[in-house]
Amino acid sequence: MWANFISADLSGSSFRGADLSNTTFLNANLNGADLSGANLSNANFINADLTNANLDNANLTGAQLPR
Fold first, then answer.
1. Which CATH number is 57's domain given?
2. How many domains, the chain?
3. Residue 57 in contact with residue 35, Cβ under 8 Å?
4. Considering the domain boundaries, does residue 16 fall inside one?
5. Helix, strand, or coil here: 62?
């Protein structure tokens, strides 16, 4: 799977269990998003807002996470 969510406002969205591998979330707002159980392998979260995001059991292998 591949998608581009650059600078997208995805706050409060549910991606529970979704395959979002290789997705770009550069500068995206994921505040309060449900990413639990999602495949986020190799996803790019640089400068993304993951405040209060649910990442329980998400696959973050190779993901680029904000510092």
1. 2.160.20.80
2. 1
3. no
4. no
5. coil
List Cβ neighbours of 51 (8 Å cut-off, separation of 6 or more): 31, 32
18-60 tens-digit pLDDT: 999 999 999 999 999 999 999 999 999 999 999 999 999 999 9
Tokens representing residue 66 in the block: 């904000």
| CA separation, residue 39 to residues 42, 52, 55 (Å) | 9, 18, 10
Domain assignment present for residue 14? The answer is no
To the question of pTM greater than 0.70 for the whole model, the response is: yes
To the nearest 10°, the Cα dihedral for 32, 38, 43, 21?
Answer: -150
